[in-house]
Model the fold of this input.
Amino acid sequence: MILATLKGIGKQLLRVKVVDCNAEDSRLSRCLNTFDLVALGVGSTLGAGVYILAGAVARDSAGPAIVLSFLIAAFASVLAGLCYAEFGARVPKTGSAYLYSYVTVGELWAFITGWNLILSYVIGTSSVARAWSATFDELIGGHIEEFCRRYMTMNAPGILAEYPDIFAVFIIIALTALLIFGVKESALVTKVFTCVNVLVLLFMIISGLVKGNLKNWNLKPEEILNATSNSSLNASDSRTSAESLGAGGFMPFGINGVLSGAATCFYAFIGFDCIATTGEEVKNPQRAIPIGIVASLLICLLAYFGVSAALTLMMPYYLLDKNSPLPVAFTYVGWQEATYAVAIGSLCALSTSLLGSMFPLPRIIFAMARDGLLFSFLARVSERKTPNNSTLVAGLISAVMAFLLDLKDLVDLMSIGTLLAYTLVAACVLVLRYQPEQPSVAYEMANTQDEPEMADSKGNIDILPQPDDRFTVNNLLFPSNTEPSPLSGFAVNICTSILGVLVCVFSVVAVQGRLAVWSVSVLAVVMVACFIVIFIVWRQPQSKVKLAFKVPLLPFVPVISMFINIYLMMQLDKGTWMRFAIWMVLGFFIYFGYGIRNSAEAALTRSNTNTPACAIMGEPMATEKKAFLHNTQIATGDYEDS
Done:
């Protein structure tokens, strides 16, 4: 009895969503093209970080080798981007990593992913709104901060901000109204701001190459100390030791500095995943989403690389200002007038970042509410086919946080939510590529919750393992099939789960133990186990179905992406993990108190008691799953990318 109860609960938690990939079936307005997606991705990713991050990383971590740090960070981001691109080609629906997890690894993991994406986007919106307010306030002389400090001071250190940011609230309200008004109008504003931002960055890159000096990439410690002692810039930081300045040259802090800088620069590429939330608002999503993701990442890489190179060529890395490196650099080379262009570009970048954070947030809420995991009123759409209720709630939560909270301690939570989503998407790609053409009995059971005897039909007989497809070491390492089979699909599922555990153990030991003898020994054993598991996965046959985009070099690209993401998560401090745990407890209260009973898949399960097993809306579930796995869309080709 207890075993049956646990089995039933497990089926509920791991039931997967069946998706009809018909591109015409959308409650939202399809009005975006590929250029709109590229602008949205670039605007979300190429935000204020390019105006601030480069200076801090170059000065403290990498020196001129920051260009290598950005290349490494871009490589890690592209790996995640490729996984998103394949799922965008497979599932042209709203929901991003939440939906991708739902159709592959089950409802509980999907809720965890979606709940953390909500947290990431809320914090991102609130923090960027406060940054926009602070930047604008600095341009007008600090009058907003002075007024708020004088009349609205809040005395709750460590809990609330020193003063409420009224202007940040007005910014969020204005952009919420813009998003409610329509997707096309929001995309137009994003395109304008993104184009201005890119033009400003091109001006900075060209100026840096014209006014730059290659000697700044090959400085010696003696010259650095002499220049620092004679410099009037950054006088407060002039008491600098040779040890803090490194060894000079192109990599003054060595390869460790480059890698440390790459870990920081990785977060500058967060934002492209907002493209994956537009699946039901894009014309020809199977083509547009992969192109939009890859193109936006490449554009951002070129921009980050160019700006960091120009910055370190114009000015020695040890003189760079951590908070506003570009204005100081232009002042250093005698082009003080260029600081106005920097100010314009900074505001445009902050505006596109804000839109990039606000745009996907209501769509994640809408997708979860439509599936019954969040409250149903959030799934209503307006006559203009925009998710008004979820947009209003998203704007309200973001505005309250921007008004009351000092978000410095919460920003790292963005990283956990995003990295967890990246990891699950990589795992889902790995699992899905090796699944057989027909759904397995386990898939049908997860959706119908019927016992195998009840679902027994001649259609199920075809997908049972054949005599030569039984589990043996020979079949596992040298499969005779050229197409995925139930055995190979099941083997990849188990191997992916084991690999996730091994990567977590490796990352924890590597971060905590470093180069201790016991740590190196454990890491060696775990690494050997990882290679064995990867080898088993590599030996399994892959699906040969044609898609608009496929991740290359499977299984290595998703595995490397999982490793990098989990390792970066383990770098975060204990306080961040505690706040993450509190957020997850709140989410589990909502899921187990509301979502698990009101899930659309749960309703489907109950309706299946009066309908034939594995039938959805009169169609066999096998056909639905096959359409998902093989992307057999008919109507998609009717859309033109314009």
Remarks:
- Confidence is low (pLDDT under 50) at residues 232-239, 438-467, 612-642.
